[in-house]
Design goal:
heterotrimer, A alpha/beta, B mainly alpha, C alpha/beta, B: Rossmann fold, C: alpha/beta, Rossmann fold, five-stranded parallel β-sheet, 13 helices, globular
Chain lengths: 272, 665, 430
């Protein structure tokens, strides 16, 4: 850090207040509590901002599982985290909205969706609607923040990016396209403080009526053959099943080989 | 005139030496406290020096004899000189002894001088180049001033001028030997080295009259105390006896010559690292260091201070992080060090701080540690799929049988298709010998080796504690594993956490099975074979013989590599080095495979999944890589057949038969 | 080409005369398969009658016995002739017109590139399930489309009513403007269902905004719906929760964000796709989010683990410039085997395999990669693997779905040329 740059910067622009909403993640294979991948990327994004004062906010139960996950975020080098205590099965949106409107951050960063519970990814939208702030989803990076306007890079498919400008205060969400979270270190994780704040509870009644089961494997869609003639029907029925060993082209000219590859790439639809 | 001058010279040199010693001790005392039995250590010091240290030094016969003559001559001459010239005990007998001692020292210093004429690259230059002259000055001047004392020359021989010249030369000698010893000259090694031996942080390393000692397990961090520092950030975070150990370095460069990372052009030189720690302890820059630098890193750019960081978060401080992460923890430097300095401990201490406080494990380190935390294996595989490789083997699970003679520790190789072949072979061997064994199956976790070497003590202890809890549920006589890393950790590093087990490497166990007549082999029909000693089996645990015995039993005559046994060169796979992946000019496994091809072997036998992976990763290798278990499994013949064919000449001994019976019943 | 059949009696005569020296050539020409090197089996005779040459049918099997393949695989080349006729075949899809719908099912397709995506079509299929459930009370599917589009087949996809907001306002990333339009649709038409594709930056974003605005709790990640009389809307749905690790079954809410393949696309009916417009103009609003346009990104910079198309280089690659060029032209992310990385040709973060990055690409092209076991482990989850290698015995060939044995440099060069030529044609056509 250059101290002089810091000083001159401090004169012209105030410190940017950033709040990151973090949740308890769940490892996809073992189901162990951890820092959620997308939320951790959000914290990483916040830490990469210049002159930002980052606060972490979580709403949920305070137990061993959530503590280990929260320490995962603290281990990224943050001194403290605010935990708005909410029982299991509560609707955390009102409590979070109140906490945010009290804290008045200029930028709120959240992960795209949670790794457990409903995981609908709706929370940032509900907060944005409630607070009346604009929301930008699928962020890859924040380029700069100047005069209350943030310049953002939004991730498009296949690694493409789109530049956006949004007026602050705003809520942004990040997903797997944002840069990966730094390592969570044991020392800062152990030292970091979790400030537990009580809050009013609103129950989420609808969830009780749902039935939740481990995800079933979805059937793969079969290729639909609309046959108009007997021969085509026969062809479709007699077609070699997929994955029955690869095709090997030996003694072909480079052009023929390239043609075969080209055909496969076209079929897969990845050439544009 | 000399009679008055000499005591003044001697005692002022001694006084200066004492002042220097106090200063030096205060430098060491900057380190953290460490409980050391002071008196016991001092009492043990002569034996440690004469037996253990000499054992290492004696690997180079010429230097060993040189050192005996020079150091022995000096110590004797110094004591006698204080008596004869300092206290004026002009006894002819003492004088004669003094003449003898100083001439022995002079002869020794001649050899030192010869060595310094064309010194090998590993030796430091700088002040070390003047040492033979200083030694000679001391020896010669003491010899000359003693001549009148003994009466060979009459008192008052020579002129005033000669006496002054002699006194000046003696002052130079005394200055180097006494003043320099405690104020930081080359002779510092004698003072610091002696105390280092006395207060060594691993007293178990030294042999006792009962037998040789060995202490290779890393020391645990206290994680329960939130105030206890997590690793080493500044030189003063080392314990005082570690700092003392660094100060004992003679810069002989044997570590440098043995270091695989240095040879591969990675930015690590163990000697420079230890010298940097000394620079950090005293404060200053490394510009005065006169040995080989870290490959690719010029000297003079790094500065440190006792309470300043060793590794800067950005920019440079005393040492760059990649230097620390280049180490494969192969312990070749520690094995070679005549001063018994613990380089690996220091490196891991510093890595601990980088990982636990900075969260800055390079390469894929962070990912591997996250995987270890979330899935208990470094690859991030589903822990439930741990036994998928053995779906057809019907391995007995500890959970079902509760007890077994042998607990087969599989290691994380279960997720690696190559290592699965080794494991299958080992299972086949155990079944052929009708061993009563069982595996933990999905209850097994990574042993924590990689986490610990990457500095993540917290994850190591978490894994170790859970493994110990699991192991405590079952009864077994010993653990057998084909992974020397798990072997080392289970055997040497679980103890302080409450897990004491009898652990054997599979080569040891197979050797025992063969000796007790439970395995029978067809004679070897292949070509030349060499054997690669895994660091964690050989240097860490002293098991050099069993794998060779197994190969011998297979009818293989091992064509030894130039660097084998305790001098074996690392494959490059230890200490998380493939994970942190610090770039160098060459690859360590390529160099090792060159060693293999120099023996003309068509096959290299190994006993470690890491070594297998690293050596098999060498492109266009001249030799095939096979685990000992695979070789044994291929050579297995049923007992009846072996008898008929007369393959096995040696019949099981009576003892072994009893052992077989015991197992059978 | 003209449709009039022209006859050449001399050639017909040669075709009949098996002893004529030109017989085979003429047969081949008549068969229309000149250049394929095969003999025609069928051709139009002089009187418009099909003639067959039974000797040319079939092929010699591995045992030296003639085999005839009736599946038509052998005649695939010849079958191309009839393609023109097939496309002209009458469209026998049922026309459906819903004049007075009992309710509306609103669908907001993503329309990437201005056309209905397969995800959009699946969603329209789902919408049809909802609309057509009750014969007595047929609903209509309303598609709400933003910006310019090139889609001409809304009717075939199952759209009854089409509301098109064609304004530059909606171009690019304009979630606020689109949301305002949807809110206006809700206010005027009050569809009984809102269906949006749960696709990143498309319906997923807009649908959640709509749900928050309408204060309706949506079902997200829906992949199945079933009728359920007890539910308020008569349907039950199953959707993914907790980052795809659970299935949540619940009553179908008004707003549904559905995954691809949530239903079969419409195939057998054609619908009206009648244009529909709002009676009121949309209110102007101040955009708080401004789209500054797309930023050029180098495909080489895409993280290996996320790339969907990887061109990977191994020890066998000698022409590195050609390789990099090929990756650029194909738009592929570059990968490498350990050896290529060790030898310094590729950076370490490009290493694929158990010791490098585990990749999940849909298509993985391994050039000169022999297929060490660690490498094969790293590409386990790739769907299609293409291998280009000189050694037909290497392990990568065994793993590959398509393997080409030959010199990688010339094959890549040919492929690059082919792709560039095709792009050129497309540009000319457009």
């Amino acid at each position: 850090m250059q101290p002089d740059a810091h000083e001159t910067g401090a004169n012209t622009e105030a410190v940017l207040e950033v709040a990151v909403l973090v949740s308890v993640g769940r490892h996809p294979l073992t189901g162990r509590a951890r820092r959620a991948d997308q939320d951790a990327r959000g914290v990483e994004l916040a830490k990469s901002l210049d002159r930002a004062h980052v606060t972490l906010l979580h709403a949920g139960e305070f137990d061993a599982e959530s503590e280990s996950a929260m320490r995962g975020y603290l281990g990224m080098g943050l001194p403290a985290l605010t935990l708005v205590e909410q029982p299991h099965g509560a609707d955390v949106v009102p409590a979070l909205a109140r906490a945010l409107s009290d804290a008045q951050p200029q930028l709120v960063i959240a992960g795209g969706r949670a790794e457990q519970g409903e995981g609908s990814g709706l929370l940032p939208y509900l907060l944005a609607e409630r607070l009346g702030w604009p929301l930008v989803s699928g962020l890859a990076d924040v380029e700069k923040v100047e005069h209350g306007v943030a310049t953002l890079l939004q991730a498009l498919p296949r690694g493409q990016r789109r530049r956006l400008q949004v007026r602050l205060p705003a809520i942004v969400t990040v997903d797997a396209a944002a840069s990966a979270a730094r390592q969570s270190a044991f020392g800062p994780a152990r030292r970091g403080e979790i400030e537990v704040e009580p809050a009013a509870v609103a129950w989420d009644e609808a969830q009780e009526e749902w039935s939740v089961s481990p995800a079933r494997k979805r059937p793969k869609r079969l290729k639909i053959v609309k046959a108009t003639s007997a021969r085509e029907r026969f062809k479709a029925a007699a077609a070699k099943a997929e994955g029955g060993g690869g095709q090997v082209l030996t003694d072909v000219t480079p052009e023929q080989g390239a043609e075969a590859i080209f055909k496969l790439l076209k079929e897969e639809g990845i050439l544009r | 005139m000399l009679d008055t001058l000499l005591p003044i010279l001697i005692f002022s040199a001694l006084a200066l030496a004492v002042i220097g010693a106090v200063r030096r001790v205060r430098l060491w005392r900057q380190g953290r406290p460490s409980r050391v039995p002071i008196l016991q250590g001092l009492a043990a010091m002569p034996r440690r020096y004469l037996v253990d240290l000499h054992h290492v030094v004696a690997r180079d016969k010429v230097m060993s004899n040189t050192h005996v003559a020079t150091a022995g001559g000096f110590v004797a001459a110094a004591v006698l000189m204080i008596l004869v010239h300092g206290l004026g005990l002009a006894n002819p007998v003492l004088g004669g002894l003094l003449l003898l001692a100083s001439s022995a020292m002079f002869v020794g210093s001649l050899f030192v001088a010869r060595r310094r004429r064309n010194p090998p690259a590993r030796l430091s230059k700088g002040p070390w180049m003047r040492l033979p002259k200083s030694l000679m000055a001391f020896a010669l001047s003491v010899f000359l001033i003693t001549l009148p004392t003994v009466g060979i020359l009459p008192e008052g021989t020579g002129s005033w001028l000669l006496a002054v010249a002699l006194a000046a030369v003696l002052a130079w000698g005394l200055g180097e030997m006494f003043f320099g010893m405690t104020w930081g000259g080359p002779m510092k090694h004698a003072f610091a080295g002696a105390l280092h031996l006395a207060f060594h942080r691993r007293p178990e390393r030294f042999s006792s009259k009962q037998g040789g000692g060995r202490s290779t397990g890393l020391k645990a961090l206290d994680l329960d105390d939130p105030k206890a520092p997590l690793g080493v950030e500044t030189p003063s975070d080392f314990t005082w006896n570690q700092l003392l150990g660094f100060d004992a370095c003679v810069q002989c460069g044997r570590c440098e010559a043995a270091c695989p990372a240095f040879a591969a052009g990675q930015p690590l030189n163990p000697k420079k690292l230890i010298q940097d720690m000394v620079v950090g302890m005293t404060g200053g820059s490394d510009a005065r260091y006169a040995g080989s630098p870290y490959p690719g890193k010029p000297i003079g750019e790094h500065v440190g201070e006792p309470h300043g960081p060793i590794v800067a978060r950005r920019g440079t401080a005393l040492v760059d992080a990649e230097t620390l992460w280049s180490c494969t923890t192969c312990r070749a430097c520690v094995e070679e060090c005549p001063m018994m300095i613990e380089h690996v401990d220091a490196i891991v201490d510093m890595r601990r701080f980088l990982t636990l406080e900075h969260g800055d494990t390079p390469g894929k380190g962070a990912e591997v540690l996250d995987n270890l935390i979330a899935t208990d294996n470094p690859g991030g595989f589903d822990p439930g799929s741990r036994m998928h490789w053995a779906a057809d083997l019907n391995l007995p699970l500890m959970r079902d049988v509760g007890q077994a003679e042998v607990l087969l520790w599989l290691g994380d190789g279960v997720f690696d298709m190559r290592n699965q072949r080794t494991l299958r072979a080992l299972v086949k061997v155990l079944r052929a010998a009708s061993v009563d064994f069982a595996v933990l199956g999905v209850e097994e976790r990574d042993s924590g080796d990689v986490a610990r070497r990457l500095g993540d003590e917290a994850t190591f202890q978490s894994l170790a504690r859970r493994n110990i809890t699991t192991l405590a549920q079952y009864r077994f006589q010993r653990i057998v594993t084909c992974d020397p890393h798990s072997f080392h950790v289970l055997k040497n590093e679980y103890g302080v956490l409450g897990g004491d087990y009898a652990v054997s490497h599979h080569s040891t166990y197979i050797a025992e099975l063969y000796e007790s007549g439970r395995l029978h082999f067809a004679p070897w029909k292949g070509g030349r074979v060499t054997y690669h000693d895994p660091c964690y089996l050989g240097r860490y645990n002293g098991e050099f013989e069993a794998p060779r015995n197994v190969l011998k039993a297979l009818g293989i005559e091992v064509a030894e590599m130039a660097r084998s046994g305790f001098r074996s060169r690392c494959c490059g796979g230890g200490g998380g080095a493939p994970i942190t992946d610090i770039p160098g000019k060459r690859r360590i496994p390529d160099m090792r495979m060159n060693d293999v091809s120099e023996t003309g072997a068509e096959l290299v036998a190994v006993g470690c999944p890491q070594c297998t992976a690293m050596l098999e990763g060498v492109v266009d290798a001249s030799a095939e890589v096979r685990d000992i278990a695979e070789l044994v499994a291929d050579a297995l013949v049923p007992e009846s057949e072996s008898r008929r064919d007369g393959v096995r000449q040696v019949q099981p001994t009576a003892e072994a038969r009893i052992a077989v019976k015991e197992v059978a019943s | 080409m003209s449709e009039i059949l022209r006859r050449d009696p001399r050639r017909e005569w040669i075709a009949r005369n098996r002893l004529h020296p030109e017989h085979l050539n003429v047969l081949a020409e008549l068969g229309g398969s000149v250049g394929q090197g095969t003999v025609a089996t069928e051709w139009m005779g002089p009187n418009g009658v099909m003639r067959k040459n039974p000797h040319a049918v079939g092929f010699i099997g591995p045992n030296g016995i003639k085999r005839i393949d009736r599946s038509g695989a052998q005649q695939a080349a010849a079958a191309g002739r009839g393609a023109g006729q097939a496309s002209a075949a009458t469209d026998d899809r049922r026309r459906v017109a819903i004049e007075a719908p009992a309710f509306l099912v609103a669908v907001v397709p993503d329309m990437p590139g201005g056309r209905l995506s397969s995800h959009d079509r699946d969603l329209l299929g789902l919408a049809r399930q909802l609309a057509d459930a009750d014969d007595q009370r047929p609903g209509a599917v309303l598609a709400v489309v933003f910006g310019h589009h090139k889609e001409g087949a809304f009717d075939e996809a199952g759209v009854d009513r089409l509301m098109h907001f064609d304004d530059a306002l909606f171009d690019g990333y304009a979630p606020e403007a689109r949301l305002a339009a949807l809110a206006a649709v809700e206010g005027e038409l009050a569809p009984s269902h809102w269906l949006l594709p749960d696709s990143k930056l498309g319906g997923a974003d807009l649908g959640r905004r709509l749900a928050a605005r309408l204060q309706e709790r949506p079902a997200t990640g829906v992949w199945q719906i079933e009728p359920d009389a007890t539910a308020p809307l008569g349907w039950r749905c199953t959707g993914r929760g907790a980052a795809g690790t659970t299935d949540i079954q619940r009553a179908l809410p008004r707003i549904v964000l559905a995954l691809p393949e949530c239903a079969e696309p419409v195939a057998e009916t054609r619908h009206g796709a009648q244009p529909l417009a709002l009676s009121q103009p949309l209110p102007r609003l101040l955009a708080r989010i401004e789209d500054l346009g797309q930023v050029a990104v180098d495909p080489a910079g895409v993280a290996l683990a996320e790339a969907e198309f990887i061109l990977s280089a191994g020890n066998g690659v000698k022409d590195w410039e050609g390789f990099h060029h090929a990756a650029k032209v194909l738009g592929a992310t570059e990968g490498a085997s350990r050896v290529a990385v060790d030898d310094g040709f590729m950076p370490r973060d490009r290493q694929v395999g158990a010791t490098g990055t585990w990749v999940t690409a849909r298509v993985y092209v391994a050039v000169g990669v022999s297929g060490a076991i660690q490498h094969l482990q790293g590409i386990q989850s790739c769907e299609k693997v293409v291998a280009v290698n000189l050694d037909p015995g290497c392990d990568m060939i065994k793993r590959a779905d398509l393997a080409v044995i030959g010199d990688s440099a010339s094959i890549l060069a040919a492929l690059v040329e082919m792709v560039e030529r095709q792009r050129g044609e497309k540009r000319d056509a457009a």
